[in-house]
Specification:
heterodimer; A: alpha/beta; Rossmann fold; Dimethylsulfoxide Reductase, domain 2; 4 domains; 18 helices; 19 strands; B: alpha+beta; Alpha-Beta Plaits; 2 domains; two-stranded antiparallel ribbon; two-stranded antiparallel sheet; 6 strands; about 30% helix
Chain lengths: ~475, ~160
């Protein structure tokens, strides 16, 4: 008995399904009315229509008023032609090894491949995936192969009799709580052991909570896997040796089991944690493991980049290069990792030119001054294939018409012309003599700088005659000798 | 008998996705409050009582028992006196002091019209919320009335 005028809505609504990429669980998101509203379609086997609070933001990826539709230079909206000529012109003065490239882990495998190919075409070697630092660390650990260790499927997780959870899985992927409830209440005698220094939502459901000292989770795992004597581990992690042995024996003797590892940023050595998780899974029969990454396609993008560009730098190497001024220009694909990250923003201020392809304007003020922002199509507009936490491959189609945003494959095709290269005249696009003159001018400038350095530091003066007040504003500064 | 939203305390993991779904369905204003206890972040659903105290307390007939047995609030009649919030025996009407409105669950009337279940139930990650006939729930009340997990946590903390 509800009002009849509400029924009008449903006639034109068509439900279309896609994928949520905010964590690597791979929930289905269903949209209706061309992306105006969420429809909780209950046919997806992963989540059965459920969405966590973070998953609801998918709706804003589609129809948020701040979504980018045109390229921008700073905050000025420009056409695609102008943007491309601007990128060409600005990338020209840099050498190839002065340009870096960061690929977001939210992008599809195809996009990652396109970025890798473009980087090879441009001659850029500093290519890296930009995800959570803890996730990248865990992925490094994932490379160490352990014979016999298998990735668990969600069905195996639901049917297993023993769960070993490291970290707060229910804060990261609450949708998993339906399956964890299934383990907890499905059969008498099932055990859920949570290893976490804190009382969290996950420990509400634990039958046993091993509260170790903060940061010692890899040690606990090593002890459980038998790689470390229990007494030594007990001295480090603060859990009694008898308790560790008892937990290890209980997990070993269970009929089936799953180890769930959640990489967390304030925990050291996530790579070791993942390695021991794999060892633990391989040690006894019918045990499998799962690693939940923060970004949806961490596994896929990392695999593609590793395969295409084997000698790429690590995360900390790249940041070090930016800090030392060896990388002067950065191509950011998918997300700006410095948003909300003050230390990174300090480093990013060293950059002279940034190309940023993203969904929204960057929150970080560091890259605004001389950056160009390109509108990027999300998975709802572009589609693509993604590798999820359980190793399965999920594909989604474009379900929403793109309003100005462009898939990354196309952007990469456009960028392939914009080659950096200061000293190599052949690779410069149509501007050979100009760059030669530029190079000479720069060489002159270096000589002048050397001379100036010999004469000692130059004290800048200002138009206002008061260095202390306006000394920060470099455009007022006039060099005496210059 | 009409259908209502029920909560199984043993399953709820406190992720608050019900509140998020409610907000996205109601012009970014969640009509669903949560308890302020740290031990239990539980959604507080309106029970749509048979004899609603909020409707009795309302001076302007903004709260009303409708013909379809739900209790609905009229935005235009409400004067913001918060009598309903004081009168409610379950504490589920929590006025938003910053926005000067008194949100109250409307049981997602637009979804019910299409034959769907309310948004909070559809999005519940743990299966704790259910939309069922009242009579069925009363039959196995013992199952849902007391939460062993909540009790164990509460007692465990105090020990």
């Amino acid at each position: 008995m509800v009002a009849d005028n509400l029924k009008v809505k449903s006639e034109n609504s068509k439900i279309r399904n896609s994928l949520c990429l905010f964590c690597s669980l791979g929930c289905g998101v269903s949209l209706r009315d061309e992306g105006k509203a969420l429809a909780y379609a209950q046919d997806n086997p992963v989540n059965k229509g459920a969405l966590c609070p973070r998953g609801h933001y998918n709706l804003e990826l589609v129809n948020h008023p701040g979504r980018l539709a045109e390229p921008q230079i700073g905050k000025r909206k420009v056409s695609w032609e102008e943007a491309l000529t601007f990128i060409k012109q600005e990338l020209q003065p840099f050498r190839k090894d002065e340009v870096g490239c960061l690929v977001s882990c939210l992008l599809s495998n195809e996009a990652a491949l396109a970025v890798a190919r473009t980087a090879q075409a441009l001659g850029v070697k500093n290519v890296l995936t930009a995800g959570a630092a803890a996730d990248l660390e865990a992925y490094e650990g994932n490379k160490w192969t352990v014979p016999g260790a298998e990735l668990a499927s969600l069905d195996h997780l639901e049917k297993s009799e023993a769960l070993l959870i490291i970290g707060d899985i229910l804060s990261r992927s609450p949708v998993l709580s339906r399956r964890i409830n299934q383990v907890k209440y499905g059969k008498r005698g099932n055990q859920i052991v949570v290893i976490d220094p804190n009382q969290t939502r996950t420990t509400w459901f634990a039958t046993d909570h091993l509260a170790c000292r903060p940061g010692t989770e890899p040690v606990v795992l090593a002890a459980l896997a038998g790689a470390l004597p229990a007494e030594e581990a007990a001295a480090i992690c603060g859990i009694a040796a008898a308790k560790l042995e008892q937990t290890a024996a209980a997990f070993r003797t269970a009929a089936s089991g799953t180890v769930i590892y959640v990489p967390q940023s304030k925990r050291p050595r996530n790579d070791l944690g993942v390695y021991y998780v794999k060892k633990l899974a391989a040690a006894s029969p019918n045990k499998k493991y799962l690693v939940y990454y923060l970004f949806g396609n961490t596994l896929g993008v990392n695999t593609v980049i590793d395969r295409e560009i084997p000698d790429h730098p690590t995360y900390h190497e790249l940041l070090g290069k930016i800090e030392r001024g060896e990388i002067k220009s950065l191509l950011l694909f998918g997300e700006d990792i410095s948003a909300g990250h003050e230390e990174l923003q300090k480093k990013f201020r060293m950059l002279k030119f940034v190309v940023y392809a993203g969904y929204f304007e960057s929150e970080s003020p560091a890259i605004y001054d001389n950056s160009i922002i390109l509108p990027l199509a999300s998975q709802f507009e572009g589609g693509g294939s993604y590798v999820l936490a359980d190793g399965s491959l999920a594909a989604c189609e474009p379900i929403v018409p793109a309003a100005g945003s462009v898939p990354l494959e196309k952007i990469c095709g456009l960028l392939a012309d914009c080659k950096p290269g200061r000293n190599d005249a052949r690779e410069c696009v149509g501007q050979g003599p100009v760059t030669k003159a530029k190079a000479e001018a720069e060489a002159e400038g270096e000589v002048r700088a050397v001379r100036a350095a010999e004469q000692g530091p130059v004290k800048p003066i200002t138009y206002f005659g008061n260095n202390q007040l306006v000394g920060n504003f470099f455009w007022f500064q006039v060099n005496k000798n210059g | 008998m009409a259908k209502r939203v029920f909560l199984n305390l043993d399953l709820c993991c406190g992720c608050k996705s019900c509140a998020a779904a409610c907000a996205y369905g109601h012009h970014l204003q969640s009509l669903l409050g949560h308890s302020q206890l740290k031990a239990a972040e539980l959604p507080l659903h309106c029970l749509h009582c048979d004899q609603p105290a909020c409707a009795a307390a309302c001076p302007n007939e903004a709260m009303k028992k409708m013909a379809d047995e739900t209790v609905q609030r009229s935005q235009y009649r409400c004067v913001g006196c918060r009598s309903c919030s004081v009168a409610c025996p379950f504490g589920v009407i929590q006025p938003d002091l910053a926005k000067h409105i008194t949100p109250k669950c409307d049981l997602c009337l637009d979804r019910l019209a299409e034959g769907e279940i309310p948004r909070c139930v559809a999005t519940c990650t743990s299966g704790a919320l259910s939309f069922a006939e009242v009579d069925e729930q009363i039959a196995d009340r013992n199952k849902n009335l007391i939460s062993v997990r909540m009790l164990a946590n509460f007692v465990g903390r105090r020990r």
